[in-house]
Design goal:
pyridoxal phosphate binding, Aspartate Aminotransferase, domain 2, DNA-binding transcription factor activity, alpha/beta, 468 residues, Aspartate Aminotransferase, domain 1, 3 domains, transcription, Arc Repressor Mutant, subunit A, disordered C terminus
Length: 468
């Protein structure tokens, strides 16, 4: 096939990198859809007036960026990015009867037997005293009134999210809330800004809803205000989606001063804020959400999933008052209403204090695991929070993340690279995300982390070693 990459070339920097970035932009723009076979090396070299070796290096770089796949005897093909990034990340390992993989890959709270017993006891209590509307509810689209009232008290008091009962919408988990918020103010083709590394669910939503997603530079506190300012000036986004507390995968958490600076940028540019605060309860009380600084232009999304049980898909969406009538039809179209029984259980735990107990216990259990990981990886740079689900680990120079992932699987470990969280098609950082909650047995977690630390001290097998 013949392709024209010249509109996407910057003619800056090394030629092979420029060609790889041009391929990335052509793929992002839809000019090279998934499954497209790229021209042979010599043909593209002649078209661009470069050497065959330059095209070979460009194709190799594009493969490192997960843009393309070289198939022996068949050529080089554009990846289906949904499969290459999201599906591979979410795909469960094949079950093994002996020595199953130690899971360091999936975000999961620690769920000791006590959690399950509390859940069963709560269900028994609800069987005796659940509100009569729980099973007969049909028309309260935004949620049963008593559940929204309790949620409003909690959101105002514990999380400091502005608004009233009429601005609270119950939804089936944070992912559902995020989709509703975006769909309310973002149209097909609109541009949305987010962190350069962000939750894979948002990246999947951009493809599903058809909006453009652009990454903004981040540091140890999350999005950089100056970079956000420059991106707002350049791209004039319709909305900005941010995770100010324990950004996935890095764990970056904004200080109050950083939140003030980011809110000032958003207010100046009058851009919609969609705040993903799903990890709020993994931090002690005290942090103020971004939307508290922007009550008329900020959507806030949180849930109970990360501190209770993953199956408790109780999500809470707070919507600016003037947008509620736009959000409700989208809730009705996607699920009619959130599952009332789930929120009746959440209402019970909010009322009797169980939720705060679970949140405190979760922070304590994760803190123990973070201390364990810090001890095992002493000498290896990493980012984390004292009670985060994850560790963002830097790798020695000899290792690339995808190579370590492959070798770790041979050692019985499952971990995650940066690829599922990358907004832009750039070379992935030499880091891996280690999830500390998926393995419920802390001894099994210790074994997995120790195996990985030992692996980091080794050199990659010969076929994996990197040539610079």
């Amino acid at each position: 096939m013949t392709i024209d990459l010249t509109p996407y070339l910057s003619n800056e920097g090394p030629k092979y990198l420029d060609i790889a970035q041009a391929l990335a932009e052509a793929i992002r723009q839809g000019e090279l859809p998934p499954g497209t076979r790229l021209p042979p090396h010599r043909q593209l070299a002649e078209a661009l007036g470069v050497s065959v070796q330059t095209v070979s290096r460009a194709y190799a770089q594009a493969e490192k960026m997960s843009l393309v796949q070289a198939r022996v005897g068949s050529g080089t093909w554009v990846n289906a990015l949904d499969d290459a990034r999201e599906s591979e990340y979410l795909r469960s390992p094949e079950p093994r009867l002996e020595n199953p993989l130690i899971d360091l890959s999936i975000a999961h709270p620690v769920c000791p037997p006590l959690h399950h017993r509390r859940f069963r006891e709560a269900l028994m209590e609800l069987a005796e005293r659940a509100h009569p509307d729980v099973l007969g509810a049909n028309r309260p689209i935004a949620g049963l009134p008593h559940q929204r009232e309790r949620a409003n008290d909690w959101l105002l008091g514990r999380l400091k999210v502005p608004g009233g009962v009429e601005e609270r919408i119950l939804c089936n988990g944070a992912a559902h809330g995020l989709m509703l918020a975006i769909a309310t103010v973002v149209q097909h083709g609109d541009l949305v800004l987010t962190e350069a590394l962000t939750d894979h669910g948002l990246i999947a939503l951009s493809r599903t809803l058809g909006f453009q997603l652009r990454g903004v530079a981040i540091d140890a506190e999350g999005v950089v205000p100056e970079a956000l300012e420059a991106a707002c000036r350049r791209f004039r986004p319709r909305a900005v989606c941010l995770t100010p507390t324990q950004l996935n995968p890095t764990g970056a958490t904004m200080s109050e001063a950083r939140r003030d600076a980011v809110a000032e940028v958003l207010a100046r540019h009058q851009v919609w804020l969609i705040e993903d605060d799903v990890h709020a309860l993994l931090e002690p009380p005290g942090l103020t959400p971004l939307c508290a600084r922007l009550p008329r232009q900020g959507f806030h999304v949180t849930s109970l999933t990360k501190v209770t049980l993953p199956g408790l898909r109780a999500g809470y969406l707070s919507v600016p008052r003037q947008q509620v009538h736009h959000t409700l039809p989208r809730l009705r179209a996607t699920s009619w209403m959130a599952t009332p029984l789930i929120f009746e259980l959440a209402d019970l735990w909010l009322a009797d204090g169980t939720l705060e107990t679970l949140a405190l216990e979760q922070r304590e259990m994760l803190a123990e695991r973070q201390r364990l990981a810090a001890e095992i990886f002493a000498g290896h740079p990493f980012q984390s929070r004292p009670s985060s689900l994850h560790l963002w680990l830097s790798l020695p120079q000899a290792w690339r993340a995808e190579e370590l992932q492959q070798q770790a699987e041979q050692e019985g470990l499952s971990l995650t690279t940066a690829v599922p969280f990358m907004v832009e098609q750039t070379p992935p950082p030499r880091r891996v995300r280690l999830s500390l909650g998926a393995e419920q047995d802390i001894d099994r977690l210790r074994d997995g982390l120790t195996r990985l630390a030992t692996l980091l001290e080794d050199t990659p097998p010969p076929m994996m070693q990197i040539v610079y």
